[in-house]
Design brief:
With 74 residues, the protein is α+β, with helices and mostly antiparallel strands. The protein has one helix and five strands. It has one helix at 63-73, and strands spanning 7-8, 20-21, 32-35, 46-50, 58-61. The termini are far apart.
Length: 74
């Protein structure tokens, strides 16, 4: 079984996902958005994209890696 992708050239390749932005973000649109794809290439992973470029690439990471990242930056 091949390894899941780690990036997608366009976050629009993730169909039917709900992108969420932090409640701490400002109206300046300078933050990241996350989504949890249930199906497709990102199923079971966390997708992260730049809110200023919603059609741009998405980074796909495991939920555990995201948790560790957030713990490190807090």
């Amino acid at each position: 079984m091949p390894a899941p992708p780690r990036t997608l050239p366009s976050s629009t390749d993730l169909h039917g996902v709900l992108w969420l932005r932090s409640s701490h973000s400002t109206g300046a649109n300078n933050c990241v958005e996350t989504a949890r794809p249930a199906t497709g290439p990102g199923a079971g992973l966390l997708a992260v994209r730049d809110s200023k470029d919603p059609d741009g690439p998405a980074l796909l990471i495991s939920p555990g890696s995201w948790t560790k990242f957030m713990a490190a930056v807090h």
